[in-house]
Amino acid sequence: xxxxxxxxxxxxxxxxxxxxxxxxxxxxxxxxxxxxxxxxxxxxxxxxxxxxxxxxxxxxxxxxxxxxxxxxxxxxxxxxxxxxxxxxxxxxxxxxxxxxxxxxxxxxxxxxxxxxxxxxxxxxxxxxxxxxxxxxxxxxxxxxxxxxxxxxxxxxxxxxxxxxxxxxxxxxxxxxxxxxxxxxxxxxxxxxxxxxxxxxxxxxxxxxxxxxxxxxxxxxxxxxxxxxxxxx
Length: 232
Known about the structure:
Elements: H1 4-30, E1 39-40, H2 42-49, H3 53-66, E2 69-72, E3 76-79, H4 84-108, H5 111-129, H6 133-151, H7 154-164, H8 178-194, H9 198-222
Antiparallel strand pairs: 1-3, 2-3
Helix pairs in contact: 1-3, 2-3, 4-6, 4-7, 4-8, 4-9, 5-6, 5-8, 8-9
GO molecular function: DNA binding; DNA-binding transcription factor activity
Pfam family, one: FCD
Keywords: DNA-binding, Transcription, Transcription regulation
């Protein structure tokens, strides 16, 4: 018999694996690597990530609830319909919330917090210059996370977090134009916070998120529909 603490640890570990698998498949769908109608099998997801089929199956069930997958009798899971406009709509919703957080950050930022944002931006530029895509993405997320913390509005940031969990985080640097767009857009956001201009910061953030959504939507639309499916 498993004691309660051990059971909780086991369940927690499986949940983390399930979240990892859900993020992985969600990223494949949003990037266009898994096209609508493609079959997704838990054992193949498990093999790809080095985990068992149980957390992979739980992940696919979660993605079905989120609307990313369909459960088809006798066939299993299939990727649900998704269009470039769906991606644009998702980013538009994010832009509104992220813009408000940027405006609040511009009003609230201390000098030390501004310096931290400046440092993150310089590190992002350096990563882009040496084509270090993982570091570029890490600094990009750190920059946005810092703004959300400086805003001091955890409830609003929480809502934004629920939206951004649907967006893949591990391939942006591969999208044509994204690294340069990130640097240019971040400079405008940072400028608004440096001069404590809430309206400038809000608008710059909204443009940035909308821009990122457009780049991802185009990337999705340009993917060949022939490349669908997770295979052994």
